[in-house]
Amino acid sequence: MASEGRIEEIKRAALGEISAATTTDELEAVRVRYLGRSAELTEIKKSIGSLPAEERKVVGKGVNVASGEIERDLQSRREELAAAEQEARLRAEAVDVTLPGVTRERGSLHPSLRVVDDIVDFFVGLGYGVAEGPEVETDYYNFTALNIPPGHPARGMQDTFFLDEGLVLRTHTSPGQIRTMLTREPPVYVVVPGKVYRRDSDPTHTPMFHQIEGLAVDRGLTLAHLKGTLAAMARHVFGEEVGIRLRPSYFQFTEPSVELDVSCFACDGRGDPDCRVCKGAGWLEMLGAGMVDPAVLSEVGYDPEEFTGFAFGMGPDRMAMTRYGISDLRLFFEGDLRFLEQF
Ligand code: DAH
Description:
The chain is an alpha+beta fold. It is built from twelve helices and nine strands.
């Protein structure tokens, strides 16, 4: 029979386990063990009815007092543990808002594109329009219309990628001149930036590279206008102090033809024998140019007696190489971020 002594024992064991519990889950297990449906105290409570009347009162009271005390202890320990658990969770989930954020890499403009943008901006500032043409070009636009008929030896110098019949990868942006003139009446002032292709690969040549073509056709344009325009562009790109010179040259679609050199910006045009940039020449080759050949004007239906024009073509990749002191052009197009990130 359950004695008061046993009830006291159970209570003391329960209170001991309650204070020893370290989590709310452990505490819940203690509750089930001491107050649950099959707990010893519960069994005692159920048996009260069958006790002799005088014991009934004493045992009943003892059980009630004991379970009341266990209940209270459980409650206060539960509050303690829950608070501690919440505290621990908050600490574990804390976000340190003072830590640096996750940064995203930002792209940058390709060195060639910087030069292209710079030059195109300059000409837009002078009132030139910007045109583009297809990279797959017809033989006619790339060669014939530019005064380079089939069989002409100049074709052999271009290392052309030939595609299907009559199509080539354009070897220069000069077909942009023809396309522009065929769709517009003079006066025409336009620059044509774009990609061009030649079968060539070494430290200073890549199978694809960039060019910017320029064309002006108007009444009364002379070589002096060409020289003034190119000098202004050179000052824009290389600074006010830059010197320029024109050398006679030859292109099929211009007559006369010239090449433009700019004074070396690294040695101020002195031509220092150990100058890295001009290798002692004092000058840097910059572009080809000339007065549009009357045969080209006639080809597109402009009257060469009424209109004259000048044209020029330059390689912005080369200009970027000199500007940034890069000795291998192939680096430009390998897509290596360690190189490209430097710009
Ligand atoms: N198309 C020439 C080349 O690729 C460059 C050039 C020279 C363009 C003279 C011109 C020009 O417009 O007048 O080498």
